[in-house]
């Protein structure tokens, strides 16, 4: 007999950035962060988890290619979920003993890996929820975020749709380092995101190692974690609750700039932005100057691709102008994606 369950998880793009770990093993961050979840119609991972006594070992297939499951991150997720299932089986002996069976995980992204988007967030979120569904665990999204965090930090924010905060937490065991919903997507349904693919190449320095070098060498980093981010967290949550795009856009852009400044302040320096990224920043500045207020906001993660947030009513003034200004540049593709989750959790 094969037991199985499926789920999907969305991609999220941070507007207050996670950068720095206080515990690399448990993936505990040095600051809190906030993200906006993108529409699952456009970007999501679909995962089926199965278990059976006829399987010989744990396996993971991503877009039809076999992945190593022996790494500490995947192992941590498997271990945590199995121990929750084992506890359930112990308290209810009539349940089938799934916790001891080998797992077979099959994942597919509905976006090309060539889109250059970090897929680890949606990937680990979907993996954790698929297994939790298979095991029929009574866990809330916040409970599951604690497990997904150990797969990849940003994955904990993909357990919710809409506007999500990852509270850094203070405890050494990480039990209070979890994701919580600030507001559902329906709270601010006019939010849009445009993804400008500058380069589909794999990033030069991975986030995992990049943030470790930053923590070890950057003087700006400490100021960012202790002073800049707490201020931005408070301003961002208020901006989202009040649907204040001016404030949302300003903090989003300042956050991206602060994060990339600490990358430059890392030794040796880390450069994620390139000339095309900087051209996109200038076009967004032109758009906002023309409008006389902030109607577009850029943000960049650990790579040169831009994500531009704007409101639906400004589609022509933002997406239209960006496509016109940058559309002819070599290597540009742009996709208009609704920053809205369709997931029913
Ligand atoms: C710049 O979540 O990929 O996108 O926890 O080591 O897997 P690990 O790092 P990861 O880092 C994401 C960094 C970021 C900012 C963010 O998403 O908050």
TrEMBL record:
GO terms, molecular function: ATP binding; diphosphomevalonate decarboxylase activity
Pathway: Isoprenoid biosynthesis; isopentenyl diphosphate biosynthesis via mevalonate pathway; isopentenyl diphosphate from (R)-mevalonate: step 3/3
Gene Ontology terms: biological process: isopentenyl diphosphate biosynthetic process, mevalonate pathway; sterol biosynthetic process
Entry keywords, A to Z: ATP-binding, Lipid biosynthesis, Lipid metabolism, Lyase, Nucleotide-binding, Steroid biosynthesis, Steroid metabolism, Sterol biosynthesis, Sterol metabolism
Assigned GO CC terms: cytosol
EC number(s) from the headed UniProt entry: 4.1.1.33
Every Diphosphomevalonate decarboxylase-like N-terminal domain range: 9-179
Reactions performed catalytically: (R)-5-diphosphomevalonate + ATP = isopentenyl diphosphate + ADP + phosphate + CO2
Domain Mvd1 C-terminal: 193-345
EC class: lyase
Alphabetical list of Gene3D superfamilies matching this protein: 3.30.230.10, GHMP kinase, C-terminal domain
Family assignment from sequence similarity: Belongs to the diphosphomevalonate decarboxylase family.
Protein name in UniProt: Diphosphomevalonate decarboxylase
